[in-house]
Amino acid sequence: MVNLLKTKLHYDIVGSFLRPAALKKTREDFAAGKIQLDKLHKIEDESIRNLVKKEKDAGLKVVTDGEFRRSYWHLDTFWGFNGVKHIVPDHGYFFHDEETRADSAQVEGKITFNPQHPDVKAFEFLQSLVAADSEITARQSIPAPAQLYAELVRGEKNRKALKEYYPDTQSLIADIGKAYRDLILALYDLGCRDVKLDDCTWGMIVDNNYWAKRIDADFDRESLQKLYLELNNAALTDLPADLRLSTHVCRGNYHSTWAASGGYAPVADYLFAKENVAAFYLEFDDDRSGDFAPLTAVQEGKEVVLGLVTSKHPKLEKKQVLIDRIKEAAKYIPLENLALSTQCGFASTEEGNKLTEDQQWAKIKLVLETAQEIWG
């Protein structure tokens, strides 16, 4: 296992991969009641085995299961906790020019960790594929605690259910924090040494259009940042020293569309300066993400993984442009503490982005080749 607390690879991935056609078809057949669960699991296992081999063949030292067992990057994890149920609201999430499928998570009791949580079972299988290879680390990505909170207050019905079980916000923070910490420790007990928190909440706050709507709901930006920070850090306390914790900040990734725009400046003093993670995976693939100046708020010694290679579209970035941008970021963060990755995963939901599997791997090859040229 690569010790990422001591070894800096300078190239990385965010985690989700395009679902193979056979897996998509199998999931559709299961949803339609045409096959049993064991058949679905068999195809998932086979697909993940093939993916891990491709990741290793590509030169990656940190691998994931592609999130092949999930429908969404976040909701499946939420539904796995006790006290949270799957609901179908009137609308999905509103992205730029597209609305997603309509699914959500709603409180139906006190939130606690479920030892049979699907993420635990998923990681157990992934770890079994790489445990004998000392050069490979298996990473588990989970949605951030703040993201769960944001879902539980999404829509009037969700907010009404939340108030029924949690009239006190502090007790909600405590329960979410404990449920998440218990999940992280369960993953650790199975050999997980790399957990990444995927988090769109900060990407929503920086968007002025989102902000304008929240004003009507009697929110203020600073109070919301304090709440999100408290939620995330509540889960990241008293964890093993050899567990690498990171977070990925995104502005939405669904079928090659996006949900929010805005640079990191409005959240830098909370997210970069105070969140208890060792690394930040940051979307920087176009102008919607702003410039690198807010990186000055990142605590000394922490790693910044620059998401300069877009996962949304197939066109390959020019290597020299990537090199120049990395050098620009190095004005704010020491070059040794920087790394390069794709801006997001290739399939945050099972729909996937609008590119082919070959184009997906070409993006990853570009990341590795560019990192090699800069860092050696």
Number of strands: 13
CATH class: Alpha Beta
**CATH topology annotation:** TIM Barrel
Lateral arrangement of strands in the main beta sheet: 1-13-12-11-10-9-8
Order of helices and strands: EHHEHEEEEHEEHHHEHHHEHEEHEH
Proportion in β-strands? 15-25%
> What is the number of independent domains?
1
Shape: globular
Mean pLDDT: 94
What is the radius of gyration?
20 Å
Cα distance spanning the termini: 21 Å
Low-confidence stretches: none
The number of helical runs is 13
Major sheet size, sense and barrel closure: 7 strands, parallel
- If classified by CATH, what would the architecture be? Alpha-Beta Barrel
The secondary-structure class comes to alpha/beta
Protein name: Methionine synthase
GO biological process, one term: methionine biosynthetic process
Domain Cobalamin-independent methionine synthase MetE C-terminal/archaeal: 242-350
InterPro entries: Met_Synth_C/arc (IPR002629), UROD/MetE-like_sf (IPR038071)
